[in-house]
Amino acid sequence: MLSGTASAHEVVPPKPIEQPPPVWPSTPLPHDLVVPMVVTVGLEGRVEKVVLEAEIEPRLDAAAVAAVKRWRFEPARDAEGPVRARIRVLLRFEGKPRAPERPADDEHLGEPHLVDDVVEVTVREAEPARAASQTSRERDVLSATLKQSGSEMLRAVPGLTVTQHSGAGKAHQIYYRGFDAVHGQDLEIQVGGLTINEVSNVHGQGYADLSFVIPETVERIDALPGAFDPRQGDFAVAGSLRFRLGLAEEGFAAKGSYGRFGTHRAYLGYRPSGMEGTFAAFEHWGTSGFGPARGARRTNVTGQVSLELAPGWTGTLLGAFHAGRFDSAGVVRQSDLDRADFDRFTSYDPDQGGDTTRALVRAELGYENASWRVSLAPFAQRRTMRLQFNFTGALLDPERGDNAIQRHDFTEVGVHGAASRALPILSDDDRLEVGVFARHDLIDQSHEPSHGAGPAFVDASVAATNLAGYADLQVRPVSRLRLRGGVRVDGLFFSVEDRLADDSGDRAAAGVHVGPKVTADVAILSELHALASYGKGFRSPQARSQADGESTPFTDVHSFELGLRYDLGSLVLLGAGYASLLSDDLVFNETTSRNEAVPATLRIGGSVDLQQRLGDLLVHAFGLSYTRASFRGSDARFAEGDLVPFVPQLILRSDVAVTPELTELWGRPLRAHLGAGVDYLFRRPLPFGEIGSDILLVDASAGLRLQEVELRVDALNLLDAVYNDAEFVYASSFGTTSLIPRRHASVGAPLTVMGTIGLQL
């Protein structure tokens, strides 16, 4: 992204539409006090950044920043639509008694205004969308109702839903626009710029556990469907999700929560004054669970420092640590769930669950001027995982049972670098970005019966290296047409020590994947754009499946999308049709408890996304997607034309939050919060031609905040709906043996109510 100064005839500057007055943090002075500051107004008219031009006193400075953060604007616009702009504003604290009346030409001193001979309007071009359905969910939407983990925050992303069928510490199952991404195999997931997906995880390719993400630290989630961006790498098959981190408010925050089933949470956070992007946060969460073998607990610490090192130079350092332990109730047969005398929350085998740890660090050094932007970001992480489970009872081992245990231990180091510059070819807006990516993983994994008897299924060590480079060019042949295209080349190298192989277990494989990307963006009106996108992405294979000397067999995806984007700032409406063709695919196999290879697949569908904001009062986000996913080939399990199992064909999500200011008490504003979230999943195909049950869930939230103190009550599954979180069809032996495939389910949580008290200083 390039920065530059725009003259008034090129850019319409932001216009204030809502300016709640500031509140004195202590006894008001007998005269007015004016605080000059520079604010960055975002694409939706919200204040993204505040810089004080003159610091007065810490409490007063904090009150001034908090007040301006509540202002709303009509965003700046150029010929293409909304753009970010940096402007100077003057905020006035009114003294008591009021200062003498001023001349009429000065009576709006507290309103933001542009002074041509004092300050320039600096416009930073927004990152152009790669696809019509590319979207973001910001903090106000994410926090409309209670989200207890990073994975649960994904529910707000349009076209996406998650389930949790193996305990509240294992990575969630993710469904996105016709893809069963399992625990991350088809979604490239980044947190704070670091890719979380794990290569060659024993439980599933692309495993992405988000239990370490503290909800308060998530500023927004960017969702890019498809494989349209050269910066997207391994596992960007259905698309990419990017968590942007930061705390909402300056100062110290503390929260305590308690609710049904012994669920409890403690949170501490701190963001220094005037240091946006710098924060520290702590979280402990635990529960006894809503039934046997459902207890869990975790502790997280996340910290980030972001500094301006010199004019144009910035530095960021992120660190996160996680430890968790959880139980799992496993599955029960649907025939038992249908019995009136059966406890649906019971467990056939309570000896299931696991534990996880994680430590990660990422640093970034960046430089930006009017023409150039460069960055270099090294990273490292280490994670351990132990999972114990039993999907089939005693079907495979009638004497000792099928309870098995998986262990996974990995260490990763890598670096990402990029440079972009203005490159006028057809217009002054043309630019070029080039980048490199390198990642090296050392992995040790095993899968064996938990009782220690019988042969192991997996016992291997893997060394995986991913080296990539990409180029991305933007040109504007005519004023209303923007073309973006590029290519990404990935080289993947695998070395495997398979300790269960009959012959030499040492194997090595390598391969290269070339992925072209292109997007055409036509500005029909400044607020209305039509986009057509194509991209080729990939998923790396399970390292253990490759033969020595083999050319790595990637799963290729060809993504297509055509749609419209209508952006008025306060109202954004997106609509698109899409298709994805995969050269081969993976589907969960209950017998092996792993994802197994299946034939090529096709997904065709459409989506609608709406976001609306009315100042600081109301935010509403609605997303709907319908996708038909089917096989393009046949094997022993599936025939051509069969529906891909487990994926809901229709996913609907609606979030709404109303936050009115009710009155003023003791010189402090009293605000209310009312929020609601609705999930609807329709038509979930299952193996053997069966169709799973639908799900309708409603969450709600209500609270009051008197500046420093907040009280809030949240209800998950408000209607206490009886539903199955996940459903499967396979043979099992739980008490009685059935070689005929039968439906099994993990049951969803009942009504859960949480109360929270918070303090912000």
For the report, how would you describe the main beta sheet? 22 strands, antiparallel, barrel
CATH-defined architecture of the largest domain: Beta Barrel
Shape: globular
- The CATH H-level superfamily of the largest domain is TonB-dependent receptor, beta-barrel domain
Mean pLDDT: 88
Separation, N- and C-terminal Cα atoms? 35 Å
Radius of gyration: 27 Å
Helix content range: under 10%
What's the level 1 CATH class of the largest domain?
Mainly Beta
Low-confidence stretches: 1-9, 98-123
Work out the count of structural domains: 2
Number of separate helices? 4
Strand fraction equals over 45%
Structure summary, number of beta strands: 46
Could you please say which CATH topology of the largest domain applies here?
Maltoporin, Chain A
Q: Structural class, please?
A: mainly beta
List keywords for this structure.
single chain, 761 residues, mainly beta, TolA/TonB C-terminal domain, Maltoporin, Chain A, 22-stranded antiparallel β-barrel, six-stranded antiparallel sheet, 4 helices, globular, disordered N terminus
Give structural notes.
With 761 residues, the protein is mainly β. It has 2 domains: 3-124, 2-Layer Sandwich (TolA/TonB C-terminal domain); 158-351 and 371-461 and 483-760, Maltoporin, Chain A. It is built from 4 helices and 46 strands. The strands form 8 sheets. The chain has a 22-stranded antiparallel β-barrel. The radius of gyration is 27 Å and the shape is globular. Mean pLDDT is 88; it is low at 1-9 and 98-123.
